[in-house]
Amino acid sequence: MSGDAGLESTPARSWVTPGLLVLSLVLVMSVSLMAGPQWFGFGKLWHALWSPSPTNVDDLLIRTTRLPRTLLAAVVGASLGVAGGIMQTLTRNPLAAPGLLGVNAGALFAVVALATMGGGLPAAVANLGAFVGAALAVALVWSLAMRRGPTAGPLRLLLAGAALTALFHAFSQALLVVDQQGLDSVLFWLAGSVAGRPLTDTWPMLILALVALLACVPWLSQWNVLAAGEAVAVGAGVSVRRLQLASITLIVLLAGASVSMAGNIAFVGLIVPHIARRLATPDHRHWLPLAALIGAVLLLCADIAARTLIPPGEVPLGVMTALVGAPFFMLLVRRQGVRHG
């Protein structure tokens, strides 16, 4: 039993949506490079990318500020979209998102703890600390939720994640109350942003996220089987425990790298998988790659809006995603309530 029966679509239609999304991604990335307090035309963009002048201020702005920002937004959006899709498959809960495993809370607590030690917080140290904090939080959630017993499983995973998320937030707030000078160092993580993040500080996490996205490919077919239920997966010869561990590891790598690069970006991991499933068949080989493209396009659009709505200032990127995601989340909750009412 492969679990893929009935999930195929015609070859002609299967390429239409991915093709349009790839074109949309290229277009939005181009707009991202041109947009800001000072807008540039396509000619200036082409010159800056392919024949830059070392003394031209506009070329330097595009290459050293807007290009890293665009790349980060695209990779973070793709990573969060895929991580959210894996999370919803793993827990079989359409309202699940990576933050429910304590990823964001663990990263924030690690950054706050480092900031309160004094002596400044270098960006590279903050990035690494955020990733380690996210990974440790998820490892703790997994160890608590998946111990052998009658209640072990997806529901216990979500409950353990919610409890530890609240605990980590309480610890972070307590540290900030004790040392309020550390608040300035963590505002970036609280609001979420891809601004002012040079590639010299973020390239290790950027590469890690890209590698994790590629590492999802071998598991796509097995996620199809897991989505039908653990009993079906066991009957199909799938090692459920091994698949769950691989899924959690990929969620940690994708969401942990994202939060270390961009801070707390809410709702992307929640809403993107739902959009992707509406545009494709239920086959993970179809909709999960779409989730990567949609996540990248969505976060790039949010970042463009964040830097152009109130020039010369900026709206925090996490606020922009919340403005879109919160109504979507309430709609999902309402539909789930109607379905089970």
Automatic annotation (TrEMBL):
Its recorded name reads: Iron ABC transporter permease
Which cell locations does it reside in?
Answer: Cell membrane
The record's similarity note reads: Belongs to the binding-protein-dependent transport system permease family. FecCD subfamily.
| Keyword set, alphabetical order | Cell membrane, Membrane, Transmembrane, Transmembrane helix, Transport
Q: What is its main location?
A: membrane
Residues passing through the membrane, by range: 15-35, 71-90, 96-117, 124-145, 157-178, 199-220, 248-275, 287-309, 315-333
Domain of life per record: Bacteria
Task: Report membrane topology.
Answer: Multi-pass membrane protein
What InterPro entries does the database record attribute to this sequence?
ABC_BtuC-like, ABC_transptr_permease_BtuC
The record ties this protein, via Gene3D superfamilies, to:
ABC transporter involved in vitamin B12 uptake, BtuC (1.10.3470.10)
Question: Would the keyword ATP-binding be found if you checked this record's keyword annotation?
Answer: no
